[in-house]
Amino acid sequence: MNNTRVMSPNAIPHWEISGFVEYIGSGHTQDDMILPVPEGDSAVRLGNDATIRQELCVTRQTYYSITFTAARSCAQAEALNVSVTPDSGVLPIQTVYTSSGWDSYSWAFKAKHSTVWLSIHNPGYEENPACGPLVDFIAIKALHPPRHIPGNMLRNGDFEEGPYIFPAVPWGVLVPPMSEDLYSPLPGWTVLSDTKVVKYVDAAHHAVPRGARAVELVAGRECALAQEARTVPGRPYRLSFSVGDGANGCEGPLGVDVYAGQAGTAAKVSYESRGTGGHRRVELDFEAAEGLTTRVVFHSSNYHMKPDGTLCGPVVDDVSLVPVHRHAARRLRM
Question: Are 95 and 148 in contact (CB under 8 A)?
């Protein structure tokens, strides 16, 4: 160590480092800024061109999700490059979704080999080499992509399969936007955005309409949650889902815009939240448009903030899509 800087590539047990890496204790100060650590006594800070990496034994052709907790420090546009050979992705961390400044992020990959390197890299370069993201809590979890089940044409409609959520943190896990060639930490679902995310939450820290997991739409109209299902053109279908609040202080009229089927098939669903939990069940009937698939899309109608100034939004859960007889089709129940 040279003050807080780690000088040896193997000084942190089980990790290899390169670039400007610091090992800091909770409450470490820089200028007039205090750097807290969410759990335990220590974390690492990745300065200019810094990397931490660890070799992992995995099962080939298995899907995995990586979860880690990170916070900004003094750089203006911070990002982290997460990679598991040969795949990689860049996670922007400019937007902060918690009052503590720490957020948990997820990223997924499919194992191409039985031994891989997990790397977290700060690609930035600042005049102060110590400026860069802090990283604490890193976990890997095998994903078991759910298949279609009787009574639901959507996969993982209950959101029970997803990235690891650290039991000690109350803020859930952010699921980043992804292009078509990337794997989703939330199997079956795609996050559509340039830089914004959805939040994966658990029943231990949030009100969840059903089961143990759900998704909070925290980024307004800048981010959408989507899935495609095989449908027959012209045939009627029913989309059902629950919308509510996570009992996290997100108050007021929470709105969800839903799109499915034909271009004009859309619904605006509102839920009046007191920020203490609760939900309602919604059904939307539509006819499938031309083509072999129908895309189901959810996004928050507006931006919402909790009293502490952090972003929040409606919670979506228990989503199902089923074919219906034409005489049984009915309009959206409001």
Answer: no
